[in-house]
Amino acid sequence: MLSIADLERQARKRLPPSIYGYVVGGAEDEQSVRGNRAGFERWRFVPRPLVDVSLRSQETELLGRHYAAPLGISPMGVAALCRFDGDCAMARAARALNLPFILSGASTTPLERVAAAFPDAWFQAYIPSRREVIAPLVQRVARAGIRTLVVTVDVPIASVREIELRNGFSIPLRLSGKLVLGGLARPRWMLDTFARTLLRQGVPHFENFTATRGGPIITAARGDHRAGRAALCWDDMRWLRDQWPGTLVIKGILHPDDARNAQSVGADGVIVSNHGGRQLDGAIAPIEALPEIVQAVPAMPVMIDGGFRRGTDVLKALALGARFVFVGRAAMYGLAVGGEAGVAHALRLLQKEIDLNLALLGCPATSGLSRAYLRAA
Predict the structure, then answer these.
(1) Selecting from 3.40.50.1820, 3.20.20.70, 3.30.530.20, 3.90.1150.10, what CATH number does the domain 4-376 have?
(2) Which of 66, 225, 255, 275 is catalytic?
(3) In this model, does residue 268 exceed pLDDT 80?
């Protein structure tokens, strides 16, 4: 497995088609999914030779913590469908490499157990404009010892992901004929993930949408966990800032004015993201939105995710002003192929590519990257 693309090809062979489609797919015609990758091609490197690059560093400070590289794992829902105990596997891999991991609010692992596996894990929440729901969840997160709360704001309602519908996949998970036949066609997945999960943990539940345990993933969640998201607004973010004692990050920003709004309500950072191309189809690629957002909030840590598959992608984002890069599908491919070891392999591949290309670029440290190393194609 020499690249993230190699891991993706192997993940396709190991996962049932319905679950693989869930991981790779986007909304409607998937213009945004393709656009996220195409965005990196619009920038070219300008290498600087005869620079001493014998000693190179990726160490990065972010929100008061030091990490081994400017690289982390984005939140991804129901990761346990790809591998047994997938959330904890990703958390352990990130902890071993001293990189951040963001647990999804749509996970099937209680956030307390992930926090025990990785005390520095972040938690991402989907919240409605219902403060009687938000307040108990925030209190639960704080009790677990989690210090960084990420609020995703680009899912006021669910998008239409036709690839999932065609494959018989849905959340909650319905046992359709395509889903069952696809699982039977992947006996390794049936034994290592499906059967192992049922035997050791029972039917997975939505664990973290609210302060209380949700329903099983094969039935509707208790209550409508999406109700009220469409009414969420900046006043709710301002109220949440008063309630949450730790670090607050707002994810799903694509416009510079929204980055300014995040700063004005007291957020500690933003993640430039179009939800991996899984929400509004045709939305601007995060790498394209990044420069204006960095310019709008120069004093705020600006992070990014969306379409990152190579170390050179990471270097381009850092040169355009991003403080940190998060990867989603790349980590999920590793998880599907090799569990914790597969996630670690995916992250190490990216770190290796970052290191190699720093040398070729003539820049000894990721902290020294700037627009001087890039030209528009």
Answers:
(1) 3.20.20.70
(2) 275
(3) yes
Residues 6+ apart with CB under 8 A from 204: 78, 80, 108, 197, 216, 217
CA 156, CA 84: separation in Å to the nearest integer? 30
Nearest to 209 by CA among 100, 80, 132, 104: 104
The pLDDT assigned to 170 comes to 85
Cβ neighbours around 227 below 10 Å, total? 12
Q: Order of strands, edge to edge, in the sheet holding 247-253?
A: 71-73, 324-327, 302-305, 269-272, 247-253, 148-152, 122-125, 102-103
Helices (H) and strands (E) in the chain, counts: 15, 12
Amino acid identity of residue 218, one-letter, is: I
Here the tokens at position 181 are: 């036949």
Task: Point out which residues pair with 67 in neighbouring strands.
Answer: 60
Size (the chain), residues: 377
* pLDDT beyond 90 at 59: yes
Token pair of 150 as six digits: 């990420």
- Is residue 38 within 8 A of residue 180, CB to CB? The reply is no
For 56, 297, 307, the CA distances from 302, given in Å and listed in that order, are 23, 8, 17
223 pLDDT more than 80: no
As a whole number, mean pLDDT of residues 242-251 equals 98
Q: Is residue 225 flagged as an active site residue? A: no
Contact 59, 309 (CB under 8 A): no
Which helix (H) or strand (E) segment holds residue 143: the answer is helix 131-143
> For residue 324, what are the CA distances in angstroms to 213, 216, 313, 364?
32, 35, 12, 17
Residue 348 token pair: 């190490």
Average pLDDT over residues 370-376: 98
Nearest to 302 by CA among 271, 275, 325: 271
Residue 89 is predicted with a pLDDT of 98
Could you tell me how far CA 284 lies from the centroid of its own chain? 18
C-alpha of 36 from chain center: 14
pLDDT band at 7 (very low <50, low <70, confident <90, very high): very high
Residue appearing with tokens 């986007």:
26
- Residue 226, φ and ψ in degrees, nearest 5: -95, -10
